[in-house]
Amino acid sequence: MKRISFYSIYTVLLCVLFTSCDVDNYDGPNAKFRGVVIDKTTGKGIQTEQPNGFKIKWTELSWEYQDNIQPEYFWGKTDGSFNWEYAFGYAGSLYEVQPVQGAFVTPEPQQFSLEKGDYPNFTFEVIPFIHIDWEYALEGMELVVKFKATRPEGSTDENFYALSTTRLFISDKTKYVGGMNTGGFINDLSKRIKLNESDLGVEQTVRVELESGKKYYMRVGVQTKNPSNAYNYTEVAEITVP
Predict the structure, then answer these.
(1) Up-side HSE of residue 161: CA atoms within 13 Å toward CB?
(2) Are both 40 and 121 inside the same structural domain?
(3) Per-residue model confidence as pLDDT tens digits over 131-148
(4) Is the pLDDT of residue 18 over 90?
């Protein structure tokens, strides 16, 4: 009786094994898409960090199971660009792409179709929650950073997000310096600045003593209490102390 039970179980397992090893006849991804999110106040790619900069939401609207259409997400890059290489192109396809969860007013989505081998390029122009003008100079061993933060026109039309954290981020290890890369900036040098609503539009000055013979990467970031806690940033600057 035990032997019969053993062989019965063994037979079932073999059936499951060979069933699961059937050849997958579905074609793999055969199309891509890419793009850039432009900061309307600078005309350049929006400056973010990775992760927690912004996400790209994309949806296959022509998915055959219409009752179960779900969007997918991936992180954008620190320079505002994005790239996805695992899409499916086919006749009659319809997709939608949209930058979301960033420190900017969410733009309208764009719809497009994909054929096999396609690689379309998209441009989105967004209004950042905070715009930062800045300049910097070395005075001997001292770094002097001057900046002015403002709320661009249209940035508060839908939601007003209060100011949270303002900081000059400085690193001697990586150019990918920002709030999320906590091991990538020097805490003692990365000065916090108390910035209130009344300080917007007013020039702020930060002074930091650096070490001779070292290279540093730096930028200013202003965080608002937006749902993603994302920062608005200046570009990363590189400076070498003689």
Answers:
(1) 26
(2) yes
(3) 999 999 999 999 999 999
(4) no
In a domain, 173, yes or no: yes
CATH code for the domain of 59: 2.60.40.1120
Domain that residue 213 falls in: 131-240
What's the chain's average pLDDT?
91
CA distance 68 to 147: 48
pLDDT at residue 22 in the model: 52
User: Is position 3 within any domain?
Assistant: no
Asked whether residue 211 is assigned to any structural domain, the reply reads yes
Q: DSSP for the chain?
A: -HHHHHHHHHHHHHHHHHHHTS--------EEEEEEEEETTTTEEPP--SSSS-EEEEEETT-S-GGG---EEEEPPTTSEEEEEEE---TT--EEEEEESSSBPPPPPEEE---TT---EEEEEE-BS-EEEEEEEEETTEEEEEEEEE--TTTTSS----EEEEEEEEESS-S--SSS-TTSS-TTTS-B----GGGTTS-EEEEEE--TT-EEEEEEEEEE--TT-PEEE---EEEE--
| CATH at residue 192 | 2.60.40.2060
